Amino acid sequence: MNKDIVTLSNNERGVTVITLNRPEVHNAFDGELVHSLSMALKSVEEDENVRIVIIAANGKSFCAGADIKWMRQMGLANEDENKRDAESIAELLGILDGLSKPTISLIQGNAYGGGVGLISATDIAIAVSKASFAITETRVGVIPSVISPFVINKIGESHARRYFLTGERFSSEQACKMGLVHDVVSSDALAVRCEEYVQLLLKGGPQAQHEAKKLISATRGKVFNSDLKSDLAKRIAKVRVSNEGQEGLLAFHEKRKANWI
Question: Taking the complete model, does pTM exceed 0.70, yes or no?
Answer without folding.
Answer: yes
